[in-house]
Design brief:
Oligomer: single chain
Number of strands: 8
Order of helices and strands: EHEHEEHEEEEH
Shape: globular
Number of helices: 4
Largest sheet: 6 strands, parallel
Length: 155
């Protein structure tokens, strides 16, 4: 299951995803999140060994311990390649991707999507009147809706 949590800047996407991850984790579902950054992000904190290697020009760096790893690689990638890295995930949430073909939850402050035909596949609204629509604090109901949607029982 892949779903995009989309909306304009500062609409609350990160908070909604964080709450949904907690609900899905409590339901013993494995969740992965992929965030698109439209700007160049900092790959590691300044001063760390891996950042020093990256700044020196390494094509990639990795750090790991017995239960997790972090990989930074200088190359183009898209969400399809990244989602393939999470075969164990029951659900993958993409933060952003408002112009993608993925089914999406649209997170609003007060605004609605501008008249932009490239914004498609909105299956639910969060924080705005509409059908179906959830308040930003209705995380359990939103999680239920997502599960029902993917099971083909849209409500």
């Amino acid at each position: 299951m892949i779903i995009a949590v989309s909306g304009y800047k500062n609409s609350g996407k990160t908070t909604v995803i964080e709450k949904l991850v907690k609900v899905f984790s409590a339901r013993e579902m494995k969740t992965a999140v992929i965030k698109h950054d439209g700007h160049s992000f900092e790959p590691d904190m300044k001063g760390t060994d891996t950042r020093r290697f990256y700044d020196a020009g390494a094509v990639g760096t990795a750090v790991f311990d017995g239960e997790k790893f972090q990989l930074v690689k200088r190359c183009r990638a898209d969400e399809k390649e990244l989602t393939a890295m999470f075969p164990e995930a029951d659900i993958i949430m993409l933060e952003g991707f408002k112009h993608s073909e993925y089914p999406k939850l649209w997170v609003c402050s007060d605004e609605k999507p501008k008249d932009d035909e490239s914004i498609k596949n909105i299956i639910a609204w969060i924080g705005r009147d509409g059908q179906p629509c959830f308040d930003k604090d209705e995380t359990e109901k939103t999680a239920d809706f997502i599960m029902n949607y993917f099971e083909g029982r849209e409500e």
